[in-house]
């Protein structure tokens, strides 16, 4: 495919996908990357350097990555004369199957809608997978951060988060209010004259495809539980339905049966013979549970907005969003990204923690089957933190730590990779 501004490396090859969604990864795959806005300029080059070092060390030159820059956000607007979201970026991410991105700015209140959400929606990357674990030595506000070891499966395509909403005072908002009042008999809109309206779509199909991935992950990783997190007591037909459909899927596809009369369910992991419990917790209570009883939770399956809140809250328990990786994926395409945003006040200062994006690259390498390189990244991060050579976010909370810049932290990881 010919691109306008994307330079396709001539010395790399495409990753391709088989009918069963397994990958064919060449020795020098072309990996698209979006640098990102704000601190993207600081963390993305460091992520690339660390990834290249891990791949080199693991495979001694037999494997390498052909990085291909693609554009979105501010850098795209400059290159594509005002187009923040170029179509060819989507084409490249689809075509090359595995890619990674830095954070992108979204204005609050007005302005354009989130480019991050748009990328997920346009490519139907319906799973947002965010692992949360503690690395030894990382400062934490809780007494036993090592008890936090969870993977969030956040539904990425539906919910109020999808941004179907109309501004207070607009003709569209008024139309919806009129429809609700006149045709649906709604009497509970407290101030109908000047009210913004948002829509929260949650479907059986959207829920089940997400919960399927979460339960399959527990099966594959030999984990004892999956927790459906929802606010179904209040939003019965959206969040409540998410919970009901989650249990239904567990029954239909994994043979789960109610435990002690329900609502919790359980089934035997066909790979290990061990029991997997499917349980549910209401979202506000879950925010308490993750602090007080984290070891009871391994896999969380939840709706889009709950997943957004839980991601940052859980990250804080293990050192903050400077070290919180993630992946957005459909069955075929995966786009890796950090949990945090553009942290604009630090942009260009070579200051922030590149750990989230580096660990996102670690997830990417594992997804590609390059396990040895992924393991080296984990060893490098553990080694640098173990030596107390860290960026400002950790240094300010640690005794006797050495403060490193963003790029120096990358070098410290590379030194540990060897
Ligand atoms: N997927 C994406 O691309 C996302 C984009 N965004 C967008 O990013 C912009 C800024 O959002 P904001 O709410 O400020 O959230 P951010 O996640 O960008 O930053 C919030 C705070 O988190 C800490 N932090 C974030 N990243 C790092 C890092 N790499 N290392 C160390 N500390 C870090 C900093 O804390 P401290 O001040 O304590 O040092 C920072 O001030 C918005 O436009 C938002 O929409 C937000 C989330 C995700
Ligand atoms: O897109 C954004 O600006 C915010 C997204 C976000 O916070 C997230 O996905 O965790
Ligand atoms: Mg978020």
Strand content: 15-25%
* CATH homologous superfamily identity of the largest domain: Isopropylmalate Dehydrogenase
C-alpha geometry: globular
Strands side by side in the biggest sheet: 4-3-5-16-15-6-7-14-10-13-12-11
Count of runs of 4 or more consecutive helical residues: 13
CATH topology of the largest domain: Isopropylmalate Dehydrogenase
CATH architecture of the largest domain: 3-Layer(aba) Sandwich
Our Rg estimate from Cα atoms comes to: 22 Å
CATH class of the largest domain: Alpha Beta
The major β-sheet equals: 12 strands, mixed
Modified residues (Phosphoserine): 114
Pfam families: Iso_dh (PF00180)
Binding site for Mg(2+): 308
Cofactor: Mn(2+); Mg(2+)
Report on the structure:
This protein has 418 residues and is α/β, with parallel strands linked by helices. The chain contains 13 helices and 18 strands. Helix content is 39%, strand content 17%. Helix 6 packs across helix 7 (236-254), helix 8 (283-292) runs parallel beside helix 9 (304-317) and helix 10 (355-367) runs antiparallel to helix 11 (371-386).
